[in-house]
Amino acid sequence: MIEKRNKEIKLRLTPDEYERLLQRKTTPHLAQWIRETCLADRSPPIKPPPKADPDLLIELARLTGSVNQLHIKLNSSPTSSPFKSKKEHQALLASIEHSLQELCTHLIHQPTKKRQTSC
Question: pTM for the complete prediction?
């Protein structure tokens, strides 16, 4: 048994929009085409994330861990810090963070290839 359609949607279009829909339709009736197009059980394609070299990710994790340890050490004992001021070591940390972010951005946009690690 076919279910009766009793709900109505009113849609206002410009003459140009209406003509564009008529040109795109692939069925004899515009309503049928809109139903098939809009109610299709297709989900949009999902773009897979870019592949990354596992060795490179491990090395990057080591670097970020070292930066974090440095940050903790500098903040925990300001008297034993080799820097003259807190601003000086914060500037160094900001510079390192910026460099790491640039490296990550660069690596994401590079094709995957085998790399040698130095650490």
Answer: 0.35
What Å distances lie between residue 113 and 1, 19, 40, 92, 108, CA to CA?
Answer: 59, 50, 40, 31, 12
Helices (H) and strands (E) in the chain, counts: 4, 0
Angle at 97 between CA 110 and CA 54, to 5 degrees: 40
Q: What is the pLDDT along the chain (119 residues), one digit of tens a residue?
A: 788 989 999 999 999 999 999 999 999 999 999 988 888 877 777 788 777 778 888 888 888 887 787 777 776 765 665 666 777 777 877 888 888 788 777 766 665 444 444 44
